[in-house]
Design a protein that fits this description.
Blueprint (H helix, E strand, L loop, with lengths): L9 E5 L4 E6 L4 E7 L9 E10 L4 E10 L7 E6 L4 E7 L2 E13 L37 E4 L5 E4 L7 E14 L9 E6 L5 E6 L3 E6 L4 E7 L5 E6 L5 E6 L4 E5 L5 E5 L9 E9 L9 E8 L8 E7 L4 E8 L3 E6 L5 E6 L5 E5 L5 E5 L7 E6 L13 E9 L3 E8 L6 H22 L2
Antiparallel strand pairs: 1-30, 2-3, 3-4, 4-5, 6-7, 7-8, 8-11, 9-10, 12-13, 13-14, 14-15, 16-17, 17-18, 18-19, 20-21, 21-22, 22-23, 24-25, 25-26, 26-27, 28-29, 29-30
């Protein structure tokens, strides 16, 4: 039986434009992107970065910085943090724009807080943090002392004498390259950066998958992958393959060295229903030595109410379907946790979010109607990516976004290692053994 929504989960932040992309920038900072398009609607286009923390009761978010992109909506993006440099790439119509994200660590002095506008959440009205405020730096459960630094300024420190520190961000546009060359309406639909940060894949309406060296943005391969526009791409963990799915109904594996086809996923759907792949994501095996896993979501074409949608687990080396689970409505978003343990999906019509165990596809969390409209993106909180993970009471947590302008979070409580039925059986066995022992001893 999957867990239901926890009372401390739900709305994390709200922006004033529709959201289409979500990426973790550091282990504690999330970037969301979207916009209202080029029409004169008054709806902005761009990015917002939020700092996440846990105050002992709930996840909280503070707005860090906002960057607007003028008349160009951001429909897809990817981030790369090497520890020393941070990069952001975003699809803007037919081009891919590279941004350099400069990060500066600053000590937070009580005297200087008003000078750092990004430290204050703009939406503090009726915020639970007014009653139980989170300490600066996202460490709300640490005791606070006040020390003098070398300049004589008052400084907030914890019980160990460590100063509170914050990250300042500055987003600067850099190179831009054209990635789609469709004659009718060239648009980049997707961009992904490989695990090592050395490769970038782009794809769009012209059906090509293009590989680029990163962050140099120099093209390496043109792969004539599909006859229709590409919906999604992803790199395998070892970066030997890139997988692509398209509205032509195919899901194909390509060599990142030669650009040649190395495999294709084929699913013999039951009956006369036609299905299309919607999203695809690789996931590492938990032991890190077993072959990688490939997850996909597949939707029926036409009236989805008559046919089910599917979350699928594949063996990519064999092109074989290992497991699948069905959904009563079409699926719109897919994400895999960086430790390979969980996979999450979002739905098209009800705006619901589910979390599954990766190897078995057992559903362990279901959040009905997390959003008022379809889920456009999902992203797991990382476990140690570019810094320590956020300490919380959850085994896993996933962020979700939608065109309803909301950023939400959904967490899975730590599960018991012993099933309830087994624990009850052990208690009964212990009581029966105690009765037999007492009877034997004549007690």
């Amino acid at each position: 039986m999957p867990s239901i929504r926890r009372k401390e989960d739900g709305l994390l932040a709200r922006v004033n434009f529709p959201l289409y992309a979500v990426q973790m920038l550091t282990s504690r900072h999330v970037l969301v992107a979207g916009g209202g398009g080029s029409a004169n609607t008054g709806v902005a286009n761009g990015f917002e970065i939020f700092e996440l923390s846990h105050d002992g009761e709930q996840f909280v978010a503070e707005e860090v910085i906002r960057h607007e992109t003028g008349p160009v909506v951001v429909m897809n993006c990817a981030t790369r943090n090497s520890g020393r440099k941070c990069f952001l790439v975003a699809g803007q119509e037919s081009h891919c724009q590279l941004y350099t994200v400069n990060i500066k660590v600053v000590n937070v002095h009580e005297n200087n807080i008003p000078g750092h506008q990004h430290l204050t959440n703009r939406n503090t009205k009726n915020d639970s943090r007014k009653k139980n405020p989170t300490k600066l730096g996202g460490e709300g459960n640490r005791a606070v002392k006040k020390n003098k630094d070398a300049d004589g300024k008052t400084q907030n420190v914890d019980s160990n004498g460590n100063s509170y520190q914050k990250l300042q961000f500055e987003i600067k546009p850099n190179d831009s390259v054209q990635t789609d060359f469709s004659e009718k309406e060239p648009v980049q639909r997707v961009v992904r950066i490989s695990h090592s940060g050395k490769l970038m894949a782009t794809a769009g309406t012209d059906g090509y998958v293009r590989l680029w060296s990163f962050p140099a943005m120099v093209k390496k391969l043109d792969i004539q992958a599909h006859s229709k526009e590409v919906d999604d791409v992803d790199f395998s963990p070892d970066e030997k393959w890139v997988v692509s799915i398209s509205k032509d109904g195919t899901c194909v594996l390509w060599s990142t060295e030669s650009g040649k086809k190395v495999g294709e996923l084929k699913w013999p759907s039951a009956g006369e229903a036609k299905y299309l792949f919607k999203r695809c994501r690789f996931g590492v095996a938990e032991d890190r030595e077993s072959p990688s896993r490939l997850f996909s979501i597949m939707n029926p074409v036409g009236r989805s109410g008559r046919h089910k949608a599917y979350l699928q687990l594949w063996d990519p080396s064999e092109g074989m379907l290992k497991r699948d689970v069905s959904y009563a409505e079409s699926l719109s978003a897919l994400a895999v946790s960086d430790n390979g343990r969980f996979v999450a999906v979002g739905t098209m019509f009800s705006g619901s979010v589910s979390m599954h165990v990766a190897f078995s596809l057992q559903r362990v969390l279901y959040v009905k109607e997390a959003h008022s409209m379809f889920v456009t993106g999902l992203e797991f909180l990382p476990q140690g990516l570019n810094g320590p993970p956020i300490t919380s009471t959850a085994e896993a947590a996933v962020l979700s976004i939608s065109v309803d302008n909301r950023v939400c979070i959904h967490s899975l409580p730590y599960r018991s290692s012993v099933p309830l039925w087994f624990a009850i059986l052990l208690i009964i066995a212990a009581m029966f053994s105690a009765f037999l022992f007492c009877n034997y001893m004549g007690l």
